[in-house]
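User: Teach me something about this protein's shape.
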Amino acid sequence: MYGWEATPDNDFRSSLAKQKRSVQREFEDRLQKTIVAFAEQGLNAVLYYENKSFARNVSIVPTSAITGEGVPDMIMLLVNLTQQRMSDRLMYLSELECTVLEVKVIEGLGTTIDVVLSNGILHEGDRIVVCGLNGPIVTQVRALLTPQPLRELRIKVCIVCPRGFPSRSQCTVSICSPQRSQSRSRCKDCCT
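Assistant: First, the predicted structure itself:
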């Protein structure tokens, strides 16, 4: 939008308040056109912070993919709606469940899989089942590796994590199988 003074990764309301009056009017005009477009499709739409009934109205969350403005508001709205409307369906399970992101061979460690744990705790020595290219692979966890704080898994320097690895985490798992497992597949505990 012409004249918009960007504040990277800021919430929308405070970014809008910092703008010149002409920019605020331009935003209000575009917002009204968007609301009319929704109304033509039979939907009631309002700005997310003015929405009193989420069941009756669609929330409009202005965001910028370039500056990140409004993204914190969208995340907050998604979390709040999930907690309010889906609280009976959200639950933690102790059964191990994780998703394999990438399969690779690391020198000195052998075959490793990058996983995101959804539920349960992964321990060194656990027997797990991973989807392979030629059927299921039953293998043992040799080591759990995690990147240094504020580093990515793609960086070569990893720290060995001797204890269990909690859910809602990402880690690299060194496995005892020379077979190739499949990326984007599920991983389960062998004992369950």
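Now, about its shape. The chain has a mean pLDDT of 82. Residues 12-85 form one domain. If you'd like, I can walk through any region in more detail.
User: That's plenty for now, thanks!
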